[in-house]
Design goal:
single chain; 372 residues; alpha/beta; 2 domains; seven-stranded mixed β-sheet; six-stranded parallel β-sheet
């Protein structure tokens, strides 16, 4: 999530973005006899490890590797590493100290990872949210928009005002996918629903995240979602007696009454299988874009306000997404239009991965404009 904005905006125009996307899991690798020495796996984090959020979920993935492989793995992590020169230094140090696989979960780590990988061809690198690969560099990302759509269903059922808020970081495709999927999910159960967006042009700024939430709550918003890095929006919802959708992590610890559902990222399985592949000598570079079906995205952790009927509806929709029978960006009998009236998905059609990855519009029902 924490990306270098300039690089990210340039990526919008890259028609080959994830050009060789694998939509099936690249998680299963055949096993061979484990080596005597444990695999050394390194992790680089773009922020401190907090109680919830982006970095927390990746550290939970690291812990899952340790739990699954025990004495056959030794993990190391370095947290709060700025993108750019600092990242290159840390990644290079991990490679130089015998780590056989290094995970770099931040878009802004992509170029430093590729640079270090050239000098350490025998080390395997996993660029998480990156899209460039090499012989010893794989790329993986999650279909976050699938979880957003499901959360939108919950929000649509729970809202009394039919007005939701959305605190957003930067207008890159990943964020636009989330806003649009959330809106389409809401409107699938409440056609009158609207979503008000506040752009922060920042990923992690708790005071401003809180202020944005408070502004939205003063505009008839009774349920809020966010694409930022802290728990500030959830805390604001708890304070104001409003409802919120958690992102990255379960945030019931922050908003025990406010949280209606959480969209969580589950990296443990992927990380474990990639370390196992190094152990077995079967690791290969790949590009993976996985979602509910692959276990990278999960919606659940319902709050106490959510009726069982709504929970079951959301979970049933999650199964349909996993089975491929429900797609957030598939139009029904009527075309999907943007909030300026232009047709963006023809009736009966579904967006391709390439179209989703280059998304540059806001759906009908979103009250807001793209921030540049």
């Amino acid at each position: 999530m924490y990306k270098n904005l300039a690089t990210a905006l340039r990526a919008v125009c890259v028609s080959a973005l994830f050009g060789a996307v694998s939509v099936s899991p690249a998680f299963s690798q055949s096993s061979k006899t484990a080596p005597a020495a444990p695999v050394k796996a390194g992790f680089v984090y773009v922020s401190p490890i907090t109680e919830a959020g982006w970095t927390r979920q990746h550290d939970e993935g690291r812990k899952a590797v340790e739990a699954a492989l025990g004495k056959d793995v030794k993990t190391t992590f370095v947290a709060d590493v700025a993108e750019g020169a600092d990242a290159e230094r840390v990644i290079r140090d991990l490679a130089a100290t015998g780590h056989q696989i290094i995970f770099t979960p931040s878009f802004g780590y992509m170029e430093p990872t590729l640079k270090v990988a050239q000098d350490y061809p025998n080390v395997k690198f996993e660029s998480i949210t990156g899209y460039k690969t090499a012989a010893n560099v794989a790329a993986a990302n999650a279909r976050y928009y699938e979880g957003r759509y499901l959360a939108g269903i919950a929000a649509g059922r729970m809202s009394k005002t039919s007005v939701a808020g959305y605190v957003a970081g930067f207008p890159i495709p990943e964020v636009l996918q989330g806003i649009n999927a959330f809106t389409l999910g809401m409107r699938s159960v409440n056609p009158k629903a609207t979503v008000k967006v506040v752009w922060l042009n920042a990923w992690f700024d708790p005071p401003r995240e809180r202020d944005a939430a408070m502004v939205l709550f003063n505009q008839d918003v009774d349920v809020i979602a966010f694409h930022t890095g802290s728990t500030a929006v959830m805390a604001a919802a708890q304070e104001r007696g409003k409802m919120a959708v958690a992102y990255h992590s379960d945030m019931r610890g922050t908003g025990p009454d406010a949280q209606i559902v959480a969209v969580t990222h589950q990296w443990g399985r992927y990380y474990t299988e990639r370390v196992r592949a190094v152990q077995a000598g079967t690791w290969k570079s790949a590009t993976v874009w996985g979602g509910v079906r692959e276990g990278l995205i999960r919606v659940g952790d319902f709050g106490p306000k959510v009726p069982q009927a709504v929970q079951q509806e959301v979970l049933a929709a999650q199964k349909a997404v996993g089975a491929g029978t429900l797609h957030p960006f598939r139009a029904g009998k009527a075309a999907v239009r943007d909030n300026e009236g232009r047709e963006v998905i023809a009736a009966g059609q579904v967006l391709s991965d390439e179209q989703i990855l280059k998304m540059n519009w806001l759906a009908e029902g979103v009250q807001g404009k793209l921030s540049h």
